[in-house]
Design brief:
heterodimer, A: mainly alpha, 64% helix, B: 279 residues, mainly beta, 10-stranded mixed β-sheet, 3 helices, disordered N terminus, UreD (chain B), cytoplasm (chain B), chaperone (chain B), nickel insertion (chain B)
Chain lengths: 215, 279
């Protein structure tokens, strides 16, 4: 493959992880919609929900999966099995696989290299492993994109202004960087979570009668 | 010589004084006509009560009466092709304060082709300062399935105990025909404890249980399971990713959790409950 400068790699990464990159990310909320609907997450407590997601939940697990998928010699088929096996509910599985599959199809169209369907962090890691950028930078940007998608869901659901949402994202950045740095050197034994409340929310979202989001 | 100690409700709140680390290993192999091999050493025992009806039952017991720093417990079950069994534990497993190395539990559960294992252990009770690493590895042959329960209680609410320090890693990995199909790992440490009351974490719950049923018909049990998720004092939910039914339960205390688990087990399995799970 052709070599790419770090500056060009940064542009490519920002493109892949932009909300405009067509992966359908706007349609999912990881159960946040149910938690907001129940009043368990409000404008005041959303930052706390996001921190738990990042340090002890799906955000952390995605970061570790991405880190493993970025490594030289990574077995992406095996990591994809792992990513799917880790999803505790049907909608979370659909969320990560449908976005990852769309991501892989986009990358295949752009690069001319075929990419099989995979869970999102595995598809991103497989596509970005060749970029001459530190793993922590790629993971940090991925986590920020995921957090931004959750905040965007909250802006559409709650009384929460878009600028206030962006302020929440800015407030989360030190924690995003810290989690990205930890994930950069993590191993498969670090794939563990403690966010059962968020898992319950994602499961219960499946039985919501009226909903905006697919998860 | 191993450090044995008294156990039972009277002694639950008392930190054990243990001079030596305990080791235990118990291994059972069952075939369609019954027991094929049984090996046990140290503090681990495996009992096979004579059954008059239903599936054969395996009951594990840790005679050390709990787990402290550096203790290690290995349980192993091997079911031959077309063999069905139920395995459980004689008592709740207690993890006490551990100053140095965490206690370790390793479970290796193998189910042969067309076989079935119900792994329905009693609660794991974690005391303040407990350090425990548990790894449950399940290997299913093609056409095999299992039901896995894992109830965990944080301290004893009835005794007013609160947990200030904890290190728990509890990982369950199921492979079928060598391919990973289920991975569920819970990690609780001091950093997580400080946030435990958050709604994304455990909320007010101090008892929790996961249930995973791995079988082609798992999705058929989703609605029946959801229909009984209404035990007072328990918040639960279920979902069925392909080939799996997964339940998470959060409860105020161990008793409502146990009542909810029993009601779910009656829906999820055709056979009578093991004696230990009857109330």
């Amino acid at each position: 493959m052709t070599t790419i400068t770090p500056e060009a790699a940064r542009l490519r990464l920002a493109q892949y992880l932009s909300p405009a990159f067509p992966t359908g990310g706007f349609a999912w909320s990881q159960g946040l919609e149910w938690a907001m609907d129940q009043g368990a997450v409000t404008r005041a407590t959303l930052p706390q929900w996001l921190e738990d997601w990042l340090d002890h939940g799906a955000g952390w697990c995605d970061a570790v999966l991405l880190s493993l998928a970025l490594r030289r010699g990574a077995d992406h088929a095996e990591l994809d099995d792992l990513a799917r096996a880790m999803c505790p509910c049907a909608r979370r599985l659909a969320e990560t696989v449908e976005q990852g599959t769309a991501f892989a199809a986009n990358v295949a169209a752009l690069t001319g290299r075929p990419q099989s369907a995979a869970a999102l962090p595995v598809a991103v890691g497989r596509a970005c492993g060749c970029l001459p950028l530190p793993a922590g930078e790629i993971i940090g940007l991925y986590l920020q994109a995921q957090a931004a998608a959750l905040i965007s869901a909250a802006v559409r659901f709650l009384p929460l202004g878009p600028v206030e949402g962006q302020a929440m994202l800015a407030g989360l950045q030190p924690a995003l960087l810290a989690a990205a740095a930890r994930a950069g050197t993590a191993d498969p034994k670090d794939l563990a979570s403690a966010t059962w409340g968020a898992d319950l929310a994602a499961m219960r979202h499946e039985t919501m009668v009226t909903r905006i989001f697919r998860s | 010589m191993r450090g044995r100690r008294l156990s039972g409700p009277m002694f639950d709140a008392i930190a054990p004084i243990r001079m030596q680390r305990s080791r235990g290993a118990a291994s059972v192999r069952l075939g369609p006509r019954g027991i094929e091999d049984l090996a046990q050493s140290g503090s681990a025992k495996a009992m096979l009560p004579r059954m008059t009806a239903g599936r054969p039952e395996i009951v594990f017991l840790n005679t050390a009466g709990g787990l402290a720093s550096g203790d290690r417990l290995d349980y192993r079950i091997e079911l031959a092709p077309r063999t069905q069994a139920l395995a459980t534990t004689q008592t709740a497993e207690r993890a006490y304060r551990a100053k140095d190395a965490p206690a370790q539990i390793r479970l290796h559960l193998q189910v042969g082709e067309g076989g079935w294992l119900d792994w329905l252990p009693q609660e794991t009770i974690l005391y303040d300062g407990a350090r425990l690493g548990r790894e449950t590895a399940v290997d299913l042959a093609p056409g095999a399935g299992c039901l896995l329960l894992e109830p965990i209680i944080l301290g004893r609410l009835a005794m007013g105990e609160t947990i200030r320090h904890l290190q728990l890693t509890d990982r369950r990995i199921v492979r079928q025909d060598g391919r990973m199909i289920h991975h569920d790992a819970l990690a609780l440490d001091d950093a997580a404890l400080s946030r435990l009351h958050h709604p994304a974490m455990l909320g007010k719950a101090r008892a929790m249980a996961s249930l995973a049923l791995i079988a082609p018909h798992a999705a058929d049990l989703l609605e029946p399971a959801r229909a009984v998720l209404d035990e007072p004092g328990v918040t639960g939910a279920a979902s069925a990713p392909p080939g799996r039914l997964i339940l998470r339960l959060l409860a105020d205390d161990g008793w409502p959790l146990r009542r909810q688990v029993i009601r779910l087990l009656r829906v999820l399995r055709p056979d009578p409950l093991p004696r230990i799970w009857q109330v």
